Amino acid sequence: AAQATDPTPAIKERYATLPNLTDDTKLYETFGRREGLVAIMDDFMNRLVANPRTRPYFENSDKERIKALLVEQVCVVLKGPCTYSGRSMAEAHMGMNVNEGAFFALVEEFQKTLNARNIPFAAQNRLIASLTPMHRDIIDR
Ligand code: HEM
Questions:
Q1: What is the pLDDT of residue 140?
Q2: pTM for this predicted structure
Q3: Probe target for ligand 1 pocket from 18, 63, 65, 66, with the most ligand atoms within 8 Å of CB
Q4: How far apart are CA 86 and CA 113, in angstroms?
Q5: What is the dihedral of CA 62, 104, 73, 84, to 10 degrees?
Q6: How many Å lie between the centroid of ligand 1 and the Cα of residue 9?
Q7: Is residue 62 one of the residues assigned to a domain?
Q8: DSSP letters of 48-117?
Q9: In contact, 33 and 80? CB cutoff 8 Å
Q10: Which GO molecular function, any one, fits this protein according to its record (predicted)?
């Protein structure tokens, strides 16, 4: 009886998350549409392989496939005319032992890419705010 009336909800350590879709209809244009996203992911992947914190995860990966899926995913988040055909974030990163340090190294490299492409700071923040909630599906604690 005590269990049935316990008001404390169970705390779930991991649960499915979807990206928070932004409501800014111009964001997709700000990132240069599909062409811009392809260029962004090319630069981003080069940085991920150069950074010692992220290199171990990506050096033996199928970079072309990941870049194509990132273009789709970010396009969806920016409300562009795309469909994401990849796996869930939990599935894709399972067993990879991504820690907080690697996660923030990746976000930092992404910001460097966006700065290099002259994406306005407010637009960068919108996108990053939509992506970072996925960290709970990606980081292994
Ligand atoms: C918000 C942060 C992140 C996002 C949005 C993201 C997004 C993605 C996407 C869309 C894929 C392709 C999914 C698929 O394979 O079907 C992927 C795969 C992958 N991600 Fe992430 N990722 C993030 C963080 C990270 C971090 C921090 C690392 C490691 C440092 C990482 C390493 C990888 C690797 C190695 C793959 C390839 C997996 C495979 O081929 O089996 N990701 N990620």
A1: 85
A2: 0.86
A3: 66
A4: 22
A5: 60
A6: 31
A7: yes
A8: HHHSTTTHHHHTTS-HHHHHHHHHHHHHHHTT-S----S--HHHHHTTS---HHHHHHHHHHHHHHHHHT
A9: yes
A10: oxygen binding
Whole-number pLDDT of residue 6: 52
Q: What average pLDDT does this structure show over 8-22?
A: 52
In this structure, is residue 80 part of a structural domain?
Answer: yes
Q: Ligand 1 pocket, 57 CB below 6 A?
A: yes
For residue 128, give its domain range. Answer: 23-138
Residue 95 falls inside a structural domain = yes
Number of domains the chain contains: 1
Is 38 inside a domain boundary?
A: yes
C-beta separation of 37 from 71 below 8 A: yes
Return the CATH number at 73: 1.10.490.10
User: Which residues, at least 6 apart from 26, have a Cβ–Cβ distance to it below 8 Å?
Assistant: none
- Kind plus residue range of the DSSP H or E element containing 81: none
Q: Phi and psi for 26 in degrees, rounded to 5?
A: -90, -10
Write out pLDDT tens, residues 111-129: 999 999 999 999 999 999 9
Separation between Cα atoms, residue 52 and residue 58, nearest integer Å? 10
